[in-house]
Design goal:
With 162 residues, this protein is α+β, with helices and mostly antiparallel strands. Helices cover 30% and strands 19% of the residues.
Length: 162
């Protein structure tokens, strides 16, 4: 028999754990941010999320390489992305599913952009996300491609000797 397609939003980063806990009949802790995907298995899309929030550090390229915090919110219809300093992307996913036309700061979309920015701010406030984080770049244990052969040789030596 054929499969079925479900268009519900699932955030794998946070929804997998509560889903597995529910499948194992283990109580989901109240502090868990995720939403169980289990209702989707029986076709109940009403019990799932209406939006996905994400936090990632994007890397500025060039000689001053450093991470830039980025936050976004995705609904079934929209994707909105911003950094601490500016809105960077707004896509109408219904009419532009391939995200080819960035509508950020377009006057015709000002109300929608403000609505999504307000929602993003509310989520960040709820999570205690103030944009700040420390990121050492490159990380202390960073190894370049040039360092890799020496590290590999040392690792092999230690593995054989120990």
């Amino acid at each position: 028999s054929g499969g079925r397609s479900i268009s519900a939003l699932v955030d794998p980063a946070v929804d997998i754990m509560p889903g597995i806990l529910e499948l194992c009949d283990i109580p989901i802790p109240t502090a868990v941010q995720g939403v169980s995907f289990v209702p989707l298995l029986s076709g109940d899309v009403a019990a799932t999320r209406s939006e996905i929030f994400y936090q990632i550090p994007m890397e500025k390229e060039g000689p001053e390489r450093f991470p830039i915090p980025e936050r976004g919110i995705r609904t079934h219809e929209w994707l909105y992305v911003r950094t601490p300093d500016a809105a960077v992307a707004l896509f109408d996913l219904v009419n532009d599913p391939l995200e080819m036309h960035n509508l950020v700061n377009e006057p015709a979309q000002a109300t929608k952009q403000q609505e999504l920015d307000d929602r993003l701010t509310a989520i960040m406030t709820q999570l205690g996300d103030r944009w700040d984080y420390e990121a050492v770049f490159p990380p202390v244990d960073f190894q370049s491609h040039e360092d890799a052969p020496a590290w590999h040789a040392e690792l092999l030596t230690r593995a054989v000797v120990e």
